[in-house]
Each structure stands twice: as structure tokens, then as C-alpha cells.
Amino acid sequence: MANLRAKELLGEKSIARNRRRIKVFLEGQDDFRLFETYWFSDQKEKIEFCKAEDGPVEQSGCRGVLANVRNYREETGTAAFGIVDRDALMSENLLQDVSNADDQAFLDSNQQRNPYIYCTLYWEVENYLIAAKEMEQVRYDSQSNPEPLRPEESVQRELREHCDALIPHAAINAYLHEHGKPKVNDGCTNAQGNRADVDSFFRANHLASLSQEEIGRYQEWVSSVDAFDDLNKSDQERIRLMQRRIHGKALLQRFFRRRNIQSEVRWHLARQCTKPQEIEAKLQEWINSQ
To answer: Cβ neighbours of residue 58 under 8 Å, at least 6 residues apart?
Structure first.
């Protein structure tokens, strides 16, 4: 009887704990692994992270997050929330918010649209893994014959140059999305050395048959992405600013694969990088609201 009662108490405690926890839906497996295993593993008593496709609405990605948060709140009254990457706004054709370089205005707009969904400031979750010191250490540990570790300032300069080179990449993807065409892949700029080379590559391979008006629209997107940068800031600050619009996966590829590092590096970076403060603050706000 004692063992039976102990199991009953354990079950009751588990139910009570689950009732206290908030449910936070994420876009997919990679996001779930970063949040659950690396960044916020210390919050398991307060937060239950869930992949969107595992919810009652079997749909992945940002739409799955939106649908499952709505389902839980309407059908069960559960304290459910969701986190989506900034690029989710592109799939929803919220182009004005996509191009909003005013962080507070961006956050306010998203809060007003849906207070239960947090849209990150950075373009993709991988953007939160862009950190000069940590990337250089992973580079050093991943190469068979590594060159010596470089000063952090040198790595920051390289990352800023990569960000600049990827501005046309972000612009061409926005242009292609706007016209209902598949986006270019994350590694397509790896062979191009700088921004001018990347721009020429896209003009020769994706824009050559377009009218001047259509090319002008691509150039408008270039200007829109450029607006996130600030030439008067330090390399470190410019990197941070451009992470709001540069594709993080593409930046990781340019940095590592140009050194012939093909292995998965994200989890190494996740273990070393500081958890995103803006997301941590939002999670704490949701916890305190219950």
C-alpha cells in the first residue's frame, strides 16, 4: 500500500507541476533542441517546450505555432505561447514589419497583432549563434590542421564583411518570395568573396532576364536590408544590427564551409553562446503573468 500511495503522490505532483508550467510552442526540431537542451534547460519546472508538429494541430513551422497556441487557449484554457523567427513575417507577407529597423516599434507591432506569440528580433534562430569568440574557437577545434586562434577583433571584422556580403542574399530572397518563386539556398554565396561579387552573381543568374522595373524592385529590397546597418558603429555592433535581417544559416555556412568544415557546428556554438537575453526576458514575462 505504501508503494501505491507513493506512486499516487508522485502522479499528483506531476499533474500539479504540469498545471503550473506554461506551454511554449516552437517552429520545429532544431528550435526545440536549442531551447529545451541548451539555452533554457534550467526552466523545465516552469516551461514545457513543444514542437509545433507535436501539438493537437499537426502542422509544423510558424503556422503550426500560431494554430496550436490558438487551439490550446480556446479549447483548454491552457497558458500557451509561441516563439517564431523574424522570417516568419515574410511567410505571412507582413513586409512592413519585416523591414522595420526600429526594434521597439517592431516589438510593439507584433505584441499588438498577437500578445501570445513572440517574434524574435533576429532573422533566424541561428542568428543567435553568431558570436566571434565562440565561432573562432569552434573553427579552431574543428579543423584538422587549424591556423592559430585569431584576436576577437579580427574575427569580428570578418563576420561584419560576411554580413555585408549577405545583404544581396537577403534582398534576392525577399524579391523571389514576393514573386512566388523558390528562394536561393543558404550556401549559394560561399564562392563569392564580397558583396559586389554576390550582387553580380545574382544579377547574372537570377535577374538577367528581368526588366529595369523588376531589377529596381530587387534594388529596393537591397536598400531595405541595408537600412539595418549603421556604418558609424563598431564591427561588433554592426554585426548585431545586421543579424536582424541577414540569414543566420547562410552566415554560418560562409564562415565554416569556406574553411572546409562540413560538420554540424550549431550545437557546439549553442553550448558556448550566451542564451538570448531578449527571449529569456519574454519567457520570464510569460511565467510571471500566470
So the answer is: 64
Same domain, 260 and 134: yes
pLDDT over 70 (residue 269): yes
Cell 542568428 -> residue: 127
- What are the Cα distances from residue 254, in Å, to 22, 221, 236, 270? 37, 22, 18, 18
Query: Could you tell me if 109 and 229 lie in one domain?
Result: no
DSSP state of 36: I
| Mean pLDDT, rounded, for 261-287 | 95
Tens of pLDDT, residues 177-187: 999 999 999 99
Query: What DSSP line would sit under 72-127, residue for residue?
Result: HHHHT---EEEEE-TTHHHHTT-HHHHT---HHHHHHHHHHH-TTEEEPSSSSGGG
Residues 138 and 263 reside in one and the same domain: yes
pLDDT of residue 5: 41
**Element containing residue 282 per DSSP (H, E):** helix 277-288
* CA distance linking residue 198 with residue 245, whole number of Å: 16
pTM confidence score: 0.91
Tens of pLDDT, residues 125-150: 999 999 999 999 999 999 989 999 99
Determine the 3-state secondary structure of 247 from DSSP: coil
Total number of domains in the chain: 2
User: Both 133 and 267 in a single domain?
Assistant: yes
284/268 same-domain check: no
Give the model confidence (pLDDT) of 68-88 as tens digits.
999 999 998 889 999 999 999
151 & 111 share domain: no
Residues 87, 151: one domain? no
Q: Reduced to 3 DSSP states, what percent helix, strand and coil does the chain have, rounded to the nearest 5?
A: 60, 5, 35
Domain extent at residue 13: 2-125+277-288
Are 16 and 120 in the same domain?
yes
pLDDT at 18 over 70: no
